[in-house]
Amino acid sequence: MTETTALDAAHAAMQAAPQDDTARLRFFERLADSELFLMLTEEAQDENISPELFDVADGRFVLVFDLEERMAEFAGCPVPYVALSGRVLSGMLSGQGVGLGLNLETAPSSMLIPAEALGWLSSTLQHGPQEVRQRLAEFHPPTGLPDNLLTALDAKLATAAGLASAAFLVGTKTEDGGRGHLLGFVSAVEDAQSALARAVSEALTFSGIEAGALDVGFFEADEPAATALAKAGLRFDLPQPQKPHIERVAPGSDPERPPILK
């Protein structure tokens, strides 16, 4: 029996509350963020792939699994495949009239996702944040944000390993008296800023919250604003890449490896 995955849990929550739009949005968010193993008819040739297609009364589908073990169980023998994120796959299949056969016959999350739903997901993922510039007068602790948004931000930022040292959620007040909320990233990798802003935008979208409910900012660790963020804000720690441990041995301390004399 294979492990229960994030997609299994999101699918179960969606099935338990079929009228709950938030649960359905959360499932599609997990689908977009998951690595999926796509069955192929032959080994991939550079960037060219030929997905295994099958036709049923509900339409045409490709076969994907969120664990290699599930794919092997379904196929019963070694098969060629390629690993893609759900967001990449939805973009590839959008407009092709092809849906996803997800974890068929191998998991609680076994289901057919129609082509129309994939098109919606691809379109939704293309909605990016808008850049605005405003002068902030002060930061204060965040208030009034729903728990499901905090959970979504925590899950989304857990996938952004190494892109920033930390993020802080604060309430804000502008110089003209306007109030809002900001997620401030500290020491973000420069090339990753747009990806981080998009991740926050997606967390809002898939939580059913208007994009304008939360702004995103980027700060260096030595800025006074970063210190103010840390004092007032709710901290989110982004996973950091593990540095390899190199054990340094003093020359001559290992009797099996005497020092080299020159």
TrEMBL record:
Sequence ranges assigned to domain SseB protein N-terminal in this UniProt record: 12-118
Domain of life of the organism encoding this protein: Bacteria
Region entry Disordered, spans: 239-262
Biased composition (Basic and acidic residues): 244-262
Protein name in the entry: SseB protein N-terminal domain-containing protein
Organism: Ruegeria halocynthiae
